[in-house]
Amino acid sequence: MGKVYFVGAGPGDPDLITVKGRRVIESADVIIYAGSLVNPEVIACRKEGASVFDSSRMELSEIISVMAEACREGKVVARVHTGDPSLYGAIAEQMEELDRLGIDYEVIPGVSSFLASAAVLRREFTLPGVSQTVICTRIEGETPVPPSESLESLASHRASMAVFLSASRVEEVVEALRPHYGEDCPAAVVYRATWPDQRVIRGRLGEIADLVRGAGIGRTAMILVGRFLEARPLRSKVYGPKERGG
Length: 246
Prior knowledge:
Layout (H helix, E strand, L loop, with lengths): L2 E6 L10 H9 L2 E4 L17 E4 L5 H13 L3 E6 L10 H10 L2 E5 L4 H9 L12 E5 L12 H5 L4 E5 L5 H12 L4 E6 L7 E6 H10 L6 E5 L21
Parallel strand pairs: 1-4, 1-5, 2-3, 2-4, 6-7
Antiparallel strand pairs: 7-10, 8-9, 8-10
């Protein structure tokens, strides 16, 4: 019996996949990847003869069928997702089907786009004295969001916030966050972080929607909001002077 590996491909730069993830892709007999999101260079290291499927053109039943057939033949399947598969990766439903079929699988984490965006901006989400909490969320779309997790509710914490899958509705994001974060709160939008065509928009919450629209950005972008984007941190205890014992 073969095995399925859910591989986090990272945010775009093919060098940001983990060593373990790359090794799985190099050895896989079958590769299923999200062609509309994953950089094709990530799977360029595949071995000769590996079968490749673009999941952006497949339904769940088709994906599971390919996995099941390959595993029955004793093959290794690399199911490649963008970023980290545990964040908006829709892997839970795939794993549930594999559990039902008795197929073994493993999840290999990857670098999420919200982490790549912070790296691009050279910022730390968890600044001492500013914020020690990061909220990863999205605005409601085809996928519903529980009422208790509405942007308005989450904004009351004024934590460092990363808003996924919402750049096309940036105006709604701003309206939800403005009452708690304020017009002058720093905000940034990173389009296709770590890709060759990466773009960064910086501004204040009250103006970021107009800046994003003016730049023609409508999707595949991360919205970051919070004082961490410009505040000077308190000195952390980690590297401070240590008390010496007797």
